[in-house]
Amino acid sequence: MRYDFSHSISRRGFFAAAAGAAVSCSLRPARASTEDERRIKVGPGQALLNGADGPSTAVWTYSGTTPGPTLRLRQGQPVRITVENGLDEDTTVHWHGIRLPNAMDGVPGLTQRPIGPGENFVYEFTPPDAGTFWYHSHADSLVQIGRGLAGPLIVEEREPVAADRDLLWLLQDWRLTSDGQIAGGFGSMMDASMSGRVGNAVTINGAAPADLSVTAGERVRLRLANAHGGAALRGSPSGDRRGRRPALRPA
Ligand SMILES: [Cu+2]
Asked: I want to staple 212 with a disulfide (CB 3.0 to 4.6 A). Which of 16, 87, 153, 208 is the partner?
């Protein structure tokens, strides 16, 4: 299934995708030890951005998926994240929204040497703030994010927030060709002079939106991360003024 920004996504559809996504992202508990070690491998892969029946799309992944695995960290707990570059070009990782030492900020040529093909880099920091963040490439960002290098990052509160369900929706926008592959032409002047590279397919947690049921009275914590390289999105789970649809539209 392909979603164009000019089309609305059904309310049912929007909710459903989110549910599936939350499950697949899984709620990985942070380790109790102070030595919290993670590993992310950057490399090519395939994704079903066009729905289960559509052609699979060649993408770039963190540890085999786009978005990458959900990193659940603990507020105030140090973490070491080893990033291994399996691409044929340089990369770095930027931890979007996290306050951390400058040398860990992932800006190639400014805060670190880029991670070359086959090289590793160890990021070490202690997240001071709880909340919902995301991580993404900061090397040739338009291209690398546009090909899929983004993932969710959750920093858990010291005191857990009460919720029946903790949902995470990481939104991505893709510009796909008619055969379902990522279109080239990154960094075009036309895009730059408009609102950026706006795509023609939106995914929630890497999949086309599908149904999600919410029980009456259920307390749902919804975490949103917009990993678009271009347009902002306006989200409305409760539908438009007429009480139906547009869950995702350009803002
Ligand atoms: Cu960012």
From this structure: 16
